[in-house]
Amino acid sequence: MTKNSQKIRFFRTRIPSFECIPGCHDCCGPVTTSSEEMARLPVKSDAEHEAALADLSCPHLGDQGCQAYAERPLICRLFGTTPRLACPNGKRPEVMIDPKIEQQIHQFFVESRQVLV
Ligand code: SF4
Ligand code: SF4
């Protein structure tokens, strides 16, 4: 397992989960991710990517929400768990993310080669 994959696995365990409003995807949009995470997402065609971007949406967003939920990128997981990425609908975990972990995740974003999902 590569160093980045280890970090991703670690961060995934440290981002608190919480319940969203059923069917809500207000925080989905164009997001970036590491090439390791991108490799685990279903492949989308150039046309699908272009259509999503034209709508300021994400190619993995379907009628029922995220179609790649189990492998969604770190930024999607982070959303709502920190006051800096607060849910517009007031949803949040009981305990927000540890600021030290949040800082490490942002450092990872800077260090890893981020690509548009
Ligand atoms: S975090 Fe908030 S905006 Fe995003 S899907 Fe959940 S409820 Fe909706
Ligand atoms: S990967 Fe899923 S959760 Fe993340 S922006 Fe796309 S549809 Fe939303």
Structure description:
The chain is 38% helix and 9% strand. With 117 residues, it is mainly α. The longest helix has 13 residues, at 99-111. It contains five helices and four strands; from the N terminus they run H-E-H-H-E-E-H-H-E. The strands form two sheets. A two-stranded antiparallel ribbon has the order 1-4. It has a two-stranded antiparallel sheet with strand order 2-3. A hairpin with a 2-residue loop joins strand 2 (61-62) and strand 3. The chain has one domain (3-16, 27-116). It is globular and about 40 Å long. The chain has helices spanning 3-14, 35-40, 46-54, 74-78, 99-111; strands at residues 32-34, 61-62, 65-66, 114-116. One iron/sulfur cluster (SF4) binds next to loops.
| Strand adjacency order, main sheet | 1-4
Low-confidence stretches: none
Overall body shape: globular
**Strand-pairing-aware structural class:** mainly alpha
Report, as a whole number of angstroms, the end-to-end distance: 22 Å
Bound small molecules, deduplicated: iron/sulfur cluster
Question: Counting H and I runs of at least 4 residues, what is the number of helices?
Answer: 5
Radius of gyration: 14 Å
Main sheet: strands, sense, barrel: 2 strands, antiparallel
How many E strands? Answer: 4
Helix and strand sequence = HEHHEEHHE
**Approximately how much beta-strand content do the residues carry?**
5-15%
What level of helicity do the residues show? 25-40%
Total domain units: 1
Mean pLDDT, to the nearest integer, reads: 96
